[in-house]
């Protein structure tokens, strides 16, 4: 990227008096190694507040060092930009992305007309007659692939939304960002469809040592607690960055220390990343630079579009105290609401007055997490995992659907959708493949889930996924009370790296066992039975012979599907009798994936300010922490993570 070669510009350089005889206006990097530690009265030497150890810790991305630099980059009006780029539309024209009658993304020119996600397409056109509205791509039953259809907003009953085009752009952007950063000094976490966290610590460390050779050591007296020399300048060049103010009268009078210099370097890197994304792919994004993820994320959203905000350590307190805590990562949902209700305020400032034991009314861990969070502390690591661990395809039905056959038609689309995404994950080359398939079914207030293992011995196919899905739905149907169904979703999870060593015939032998296990898949009902680990049982077979339920439409068809699967599994069992089958157990909680664990794309929970479409078709990754995700049947509060496993 050439950062090290770039001239480091200073608006003004004030040399720190006679202690720095070597320092000249043109060289911002005086040789400290030869001067400050050999001068006669060391006590007079002004020093940095940071130590050699803390500097060194940067190299290994330690969350402990106060010099740490994290960035968050978020695309502006993402889906809207995807459409302007795809269609070659002038980005200054107002444009919104439509999903059925709602708008799900609005570009900044359209926001100038006061449009937001809350308006319907009809209202939007009244407010902004020149608004370009592009409907998202949809899958139509029987189609091989999603497509952009004319008038698709009228096809809600027969089509399903596809966000594939945006996922594809998201991948390109991620790749571009990674290519901009030095290969060996990058740590990138995909945090959603249009955002990433970057831990810039190691790269900044390298640049720092290049620009300021005096920092290279050796550590004086071999004492890592020895403080670093002072920064040889008093004014840093922040270019076009939005600098958060310190809120203190003398806040800017304190000379810059190395944490400020680290932030300047990080912010140059972020500027380069943003420039590359714009030049190579045509997208603008906003960035935030700060000492941790929580602050960096607040920074990227602070000034939009196409800007970057730096929250220097000296500005953290002021920045946060002016904030609503509901804007903080992980406090945007239920936990935030709970805190608002409990303390009667949504302001950080007010919450800062609450002693720890008061905050602990939200739970011990949550309370202490909140206590440090509102003080700007967050030790969570940037997690470089970018691989998908599960995929979900869903549809909300309005009106609700009423028969097994109808459900099966949707499953065909889900299977095609998921299969095509698996193909992109390298499943065909057997690089990675899912281990389980899950079906979620909502009827009234009740959500039911069924899970089955994906047979491992044969190539994954769309037909296989479809058959598995159909089977799972059949199980729900024979259990009764399946209709009307308001929401159906299919997901695959437990992606594992493909079998590279030759497992031989064993892989195929699993089939019989798994086919059997399928008949006894895990079940959960949000209203009913508690989740329990269960061993293989007779499952739904008993229901075959139970009384026929005439109200249960599609019962016969569902029963036929199960009968067929059962006879197939017994046939395989007979053939492979001597195979030492493994027991298949299910942990019901498996259905709720940890978003930090994988690229789970989940329907977003409609909240009062997010009711753009109230349609679960719209799958996008949320930022909520694992434990803050809506949980089944529980009222427990999140215990936000303090560290993440590497
Ligand atoms: P955001 O990053 O939240 O929003 P944005 O990119 O549209 O706008 P901003 O410039 O403020 O960042 O979401 C990214 C995409 O996710 C967005 O373009 C559309 C989709 N999305 C929804 O479909 N529904 C939602 O409720 C939200 C919040 C986002
Ligand atoms: Ca965005
Ligand atoms: Ca985002």
From TrEMBL:
What GO biological process terms are annotated to this protein in UniProt? DNA repair; error-free translesion synthesis; error-prone translesion synthesis; mitotic sister chromatid cohesion; response to radiation
A cellular component term, taken from the record's GO annotations: replication fork
- What organism is the protein native to? Neocucurbitaria cava
Q: Mark out the compositionally biased spans (Basic and acidic residues).
A: 547-556, 581-604
A single Gene Ontology MF term assigned here is:
DNA-directed DNA polymerase activity
Mind listing the UniProt keywords for this protein, alphabetically? DNA damage, DNA repair, DNA-directed DNA polymerase, Metal-binding, Nucleotidyltransferase, Nucleus, Transferase, Zinc, Zinc-finger
Segments carrying the region annotation (Disordered) are 519-646
Among SUPFAM superfamilies, the record links this protein to:
DNA/RNA polymerases, Lesion bypass DNA polymerase (Y-family), little finger domain
Q: What name is this protein filed under?
A: DNA polymerase eta
Gene designation per UniProt? RAD30
């Amino acid at each position: 990227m050439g950062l090290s070669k770039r001239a480091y510009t200073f608006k003004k350089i004030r040399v720190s008096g006679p202690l720095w005889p070597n320092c000249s206006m043109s060289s911002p990097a005086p040789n400290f190694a030869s001067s400050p530690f050999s001068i006669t009265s060391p006590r007079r030497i002004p020093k940095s507040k940071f130590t050699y150890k803390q500097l060194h810790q940067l190299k290994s991305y330690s969350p402990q060092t106060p010099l740490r630099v994290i960035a968050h980059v978020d695309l502006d009006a993402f889906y809207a930009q995807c459409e302007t780029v795809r269609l070659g539309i002038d980005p200054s024209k107002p444009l919104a992305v439509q999903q059925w009658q709602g708008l799900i993304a609005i570009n900044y020119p359209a926001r100038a007309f006061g449009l937001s996600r809350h308006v319907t397409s009809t209202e939007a056109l009244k407010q902004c007659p020149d608004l370009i509205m592009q409907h998202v791509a949809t899958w139509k039953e029987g189609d091989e692939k999603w497509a952009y259809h004319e008038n698709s907003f009228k096809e809600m009953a027969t089509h399903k939304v596809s966000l594939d085009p945006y996922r594809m752009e998201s991948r390109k952007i991620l790749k571009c960002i990674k290519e901009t950063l030095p290969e060996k000094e990058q740590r990138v976490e995909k945090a959603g469809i249009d955002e990433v966290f970057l831990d810039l610590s190691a790269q900044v460390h390298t640049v720092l040592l290049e620009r300021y050779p005096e920092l290279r050591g050796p550590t004086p007296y071999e004492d890592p607690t020895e403080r670093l020399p002072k920064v040889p300048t008093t004014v840093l060049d922040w270019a076009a960055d939005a600098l958060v103010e310190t809120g203190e009268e003398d806040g800017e009078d304190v000379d810059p220390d190395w944490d400020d210099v680290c932030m300047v370097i990080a912010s140059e890197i972020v500027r380069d990343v943003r420039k590359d994304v714009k030049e190579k792919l045509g997208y603008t994004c906003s960035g935030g630079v700060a000492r941790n993820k929580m602050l960096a994320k607040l920074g990227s959203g602070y000034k939009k579009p196409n800007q970057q905000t730096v929250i220097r350590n000296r500005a953290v307190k002021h920045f946060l105290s002016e904030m609503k805590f509901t804007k903080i990562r992980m406090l945007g949902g239920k936990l935030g609401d709970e805190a608002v209700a409990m303390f009667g305020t949504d302001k950080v400032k007010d919450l800062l007055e609450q002693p720890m034991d008061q905050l602990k009314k939200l739970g011990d861990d949550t309370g202490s997490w909140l206590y440090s969070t509102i003080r700007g502390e967050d030790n969570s690591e940037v997690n470089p995992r970018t691989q998908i661990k599960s995929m979900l395809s869903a549809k909300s039905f309005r009106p609700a659907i009423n028969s097994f056959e109808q459900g099966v038609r949707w499953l065909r689309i889900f299977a095609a959708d998921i299969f095509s995404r698996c193909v992109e994950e390298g499943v065909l080359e057997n690089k990675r493949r899912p281990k389980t398939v899950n079906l979620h079914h909502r009827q009234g207030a009740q959500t039911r889930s069924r899970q089955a293992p994906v047979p491992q011995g044969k190539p994954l196919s769309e037909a296989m996924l479809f058959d598995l899905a159909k089977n799972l739905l059949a199980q729900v149907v024979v259990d009764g009370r399946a209709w009307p169904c308001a929401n159906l979703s299919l997901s695959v999870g437990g992606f594992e790296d493909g079998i590279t060593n030759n497992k031989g015939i064993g892989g195929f032998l699993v089939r019989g066992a798994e086919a059997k296990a399928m008949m006894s898949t895990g079940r959960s009902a949000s209203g009913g039975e508690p989740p329990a680990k269960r061993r293989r049982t007779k499952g739904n077979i008993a229901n075959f012979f139970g009384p026929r339920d005439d109200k249960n439409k599609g019962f016969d068809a569902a029963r036929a599907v199960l009968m067929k699967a059962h006879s197939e599994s017994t046939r395989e069992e007979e053939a492979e009798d001597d195979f030492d089958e493994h027991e298949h157990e299910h942990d019901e909680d498996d259905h709720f994936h940890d978003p930090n664990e994988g690229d789970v794309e989940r329907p977003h929970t409609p909240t009062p300010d997010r009711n753009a479409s109230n349609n679960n078709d719209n799958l996008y990754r949320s930022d909520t922490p694992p434990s803050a995700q809506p949980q089944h049947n529980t009222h427990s509060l999140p215990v936000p993570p303090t560290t993440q496993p590497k």
